Amino acid sequence: MRTTVYGSWHLASVYAVGLASLGHEVRLLTHSPVRERYEAGEPPVFEPGLKEAIARLQSERKLIFTSDIPADGDDVCFFAEDCKVTESGVDLAAFRELFDPVAASGRFGTIAVSSQLPLGTCRELAAAHPALRIVYFPEFLRLGTALDRFLRPDFIVVGGEHTAAAAVLDFFAAQEAPKFTVTLEEAEMTKHAANAFVATSVSFVSELTKFSERWNVNLERIGAILRCDKRIGPKAYVMPGMGFSGETVERDIRVLIGLAAKSGFDLPMFREVIAVNNEHNRFIERELARRFPDMSGKKVGFLGATYRPSTSTLRGSLFAPLMDRLSAAGAAVLLFDPNIEASPMLVKSADAAFDGADAVVVSVSKPAFRELDFAALVARMKTRVIIDAANLLPLDVARSLGAEYCSIGRGTL
């Protein structure tokens, strides 16, 4: 089968490679600068396995790139543009500027929308383009594991009229996963509900961390126990750590809060989920301020800043804005992150981030960081303060460092 995928960033690249890997012929429709990068073998963001798959699929002629809407069109087009995030959720005006010309081209019979859209949007798109079949095909991917999750999904959801939904599901006939055909609104709500549930779980654990140091409770042990409860599940978000980012699951909560307000009712629990998360995500700043009331002239190293451990993007990162704030307060901030190619704070080694540092923040749990010799690195510091926001170090290793060490939700050393 042949299809067109539209989009310019992470979601479209995963869709295009994923569909081609399933054996389909895929045309990735994107802007010229992005297309040129693809043709040079460089996807817009690092994702494990993506670059290698693009090279292989290009050589097999399963994947091609274009900046023009194909004249011969396809029965199904997957619209996978990553939406711009606003304070209230999603920039729909920017989305429509991209979507409407593709929808009005007359080159496609069905458009399967996977962009992150508010409840009710696809019904509006269908009304605006009555000659086109619109379905909603929500994505449940994660940066760093997206390609694997696309090829081995937990489930597949398609919302829309039955014939159009069936045309989309045909592309995934070989995948063994539960498949659901629902209404447009139910598919949109599935995406909102999944992310809102994850966010609520994360804030639930964030609240429990307040008990951790006072009663010396290690919530990693508690989380391991809770995952044995069949009502909770073995992959539940019950481990302590930093909270969620404003560009991810929070977007869906803000959309639901906004829709509720327009409909005349309130969602107090969801508002609290965001409030708890915002407070919890000040953990690093609180710990630094407690030890260094004046950051001017202090040197702070960071291990990692990307949004997820196995990606290269700072989009959605909790740590890039924090590093900017520390720099504005007069601190010298040095970042070591092997996945990042360019940053004014970037250094080439962990040694450089630790040399003469007053504090080092372990931000992201990257596999490469687990191999570091932390005893040797701590010896290079001026003031031995380690803030382990990723809970990277085993507690016995942390105890052996002779440093002032803190982590999230794991009690006291």
Could you characterize what this model shows?
The structure is a single chain. The model has no long low-confidence stretch (mean pLDDT 93). Helix 8 (184-208) crosses helix 11 (249-263). The strands form four sheets. The protein has a six-stranded parallel sheet with strand order 3-2-1-4-7-8, with helices on both faces. The protein is 41% helix and 15% strand. It has 18 helices and 15 strands. By secondary structure, the chain is an alpha/beta fold. It has helices spanning 10-21, 32-39, 50-59, 92-104, 121-128, 146-151, 162-169, 184-208, 212-215, 219-226, 249-263, 268-280, 283-291, 319-328, 350-354, 367-370, 374-378, 395-400, and strands at residues 2-6, 25-29, 63-66, 74-79, 85-86, 89-90, 108-113, 133-136, 156-159, 179-182, 299-303, 332-336, 359-362, 385-388, 404-407.
Question: What brief labels describe this structure?
Answer:
alpha/beta
Output the number of helix runs. Answer: 18
Give the low-pLDDT segments.
none
- Oligomer state equals single chain
> Which structural class fits the helix and strand makeup?
alpha/beta
Query: What gyration radius follows from the Cα positions, in whole Å?
Result: 23 Å
Q: How many individual β-strands?
A: 15
Strand neighbour order, sheet with most strands: 3-2-1-4-7-8
Q: What is the 3D form?
A: globular
* Alpha carbon gap, first and last residue: 58 Å
Strand content: 15-25%
Give the averaged pLDDT, no decimals: 93
Biggest beta sheet attributes:
6 strands, parallel
